Amino acid sequence: MWTLRGATTSYVVGVPDHNQWAQLIAWGPHAVTEGPSVVAPVGTEHFLPRADVEPLEYAVRGVRYASPVDLVISGPDGSDELRLVFSGATTGDPLHPAAGAGAAEEQLELTFRDELRAVRVVLHYKVVADAVERWVAVHNDGNDELRLHRHDSAGFTVPTTGGATVRYLWGEWNSEFQQAEVTLERGRLTIGSAQGITGHSYSPFLSVKDGGTAYGVQLAWSGSWEMSADVDTTGQLRIQAGRVSPSLGITLRPGETWVSPKAVGVCSAEGADGLARVFHAYERSLSRKRTPKVLYNSWFATEFDIRADHQLELARRAKTIGVETFVVDDGWFVGRSDDTGGLGDWEVDRAKFPNGLDGFIAGLNDIGLDFGLWVEPESVSPKSELAANHPEWILRTPGRDPVLIRNQLLLDLSRDDVADFVWTTLDRLLSTYQIKYLKWDANRPRLDSGDQRRDLDGRVVTNLYAILDRLRVEHPEVYVEGCAGGGARVDLGMAARVDTLWPSDNTAPLDRLRIQQGFRTGFAPHLMSSWVTDAVGTHDGRERSLDFRFRVAMAGVLGIGADLSRWNGEQLATAAQYIEQYKGIRELVADSKVYGLSAGVQYVGATRSVVFLWETGDGNVRGTLPTRPRRVPLAGLDPAKNYRVGDEVHPGSYLLQVGVRWDDSTDSNCLVVEALD
Questions:
Q1: How many CA atoms lie within 13 A of 112 on its CB side?
Q2: 389-429 pLDDT per residue, tens
């Protein structure tokens, strides 16, 4: 047995004496994992092999048959079975032999071999804070070509006592990150994406709550994926996470190795709220910890009607309210007067910028603003020069018309020459112009993919990640936002490579609040780009004040997207007030523990907290009816310390039990709580 110890939880894995598989021994808070296993089955199995009821860490067809498996490999003889045998373990630094359940390691590799098929499967583990990263490497050590038909990253057995409640995030464009749950007594729940991108429909996230302890799994992959929660007939719950294979599988030639993306499992004794905090801490460990600047994006003000003089006028207004970065969105390049042309021809439109983009940026710098730019480098317009000059670069099924989505096609990013074009384009723009902010968009899925004998999904995502990684190395000063028609590419793979993510194109206050609440269940506030706009709700169109809109956006990475030319002096003054307040709390919002409250959310730092409260019902927001004072209990404070909240001072115990007063005369509030001791 090996124990991987995190900050507050442990993950214990073992290999039985027969050496045929690895299995979970325990997973949970340290004290829980020190007792007997709660996942080992009891009694004698009938009709099925023992492996079909054991809590396997990685289930291979040929060892397990009837229950869900994680790996299926076929050879030239048509057989799809492996009979793996454990051949050794490598632990973290310093290296030493495995010694039993008390041997705590941060990293672990368990190697299994099938001598007949000449396949080596290595299970990888790494603990970061309280997160367990898992992935698998499959090595073809033989002389035959093999084919991978299923190839999950991991299977996480979740210690439950029965009747598991499985939670997930679903959505669609403009309605991402909606929270839902299902109780699985027995059976299987499967979510995923076959779109070649993470997708709006589901997030690669599943969580389970058992009593006060919660477990969660996410997949770090930005292509097609699948996750399942399966409760077998014994009541054992297991979560599988992995990439989706092409319909013909993935070819593994002699001497080649296939490596899965990471699946990340976390556990918290503090329930679903605590689970989110563990995921947030993990995601912060991946980040560059850049202080976000307040941006203005001109899209909602101008859409494709970009004129340099008008943009500079918006920039002057933005500067007066405290904005620090001005972002020009879609429409700055040649051929882009609407969404039917221009993509791929990444040259500045001189009709829109008579003094060139460098002249425009100089004007912004004179105003006192940094410059940001929108790009969609993976897409191409059918009537662009790029499409005419390189038709072979367009992703399509030979002999068939390519599928047109949003009047655009996709470049085949699996090709090295296309990946080189994308990198060269970005590098040229970032090297030529003083661009401090890059908004990378992707406004369509990858559907018609041609030859299924190749690993298109793997090559595309690998090249995408390589370009993003190179951006961080060669242009470290550029702050990168990931966007995909809203929140269609939000996952741990992107969270490790961009500075912030765009959760949704829906910026209406009540709709957006619900989206952000779902987003925070799996993703940290520093990743949550949020704008103040004039948008009317798609689903909930009830009016809310400008104060409410700002307090929603300030709970993430604040941006402004409204048409400032239409705002009056009072609105601009209100905006300036909130932007100034945000600058004083933005590092706290980005790097704190997040607690959900009965009417809002609290960000808790070492000595300060910020509390956002929102009236989301049809409450007494105008104060026209008699009512009693409302109290909202806080969280995460030290009960023995004293805290200042506005003009009042209260013990932490009082704030935790009784809370802060909110009389509902306003539709929202933002309070700073400061420790005095």
A1: 25
A2: 999 999 999 999 999 999 999 999 999 999 999 999 999 99
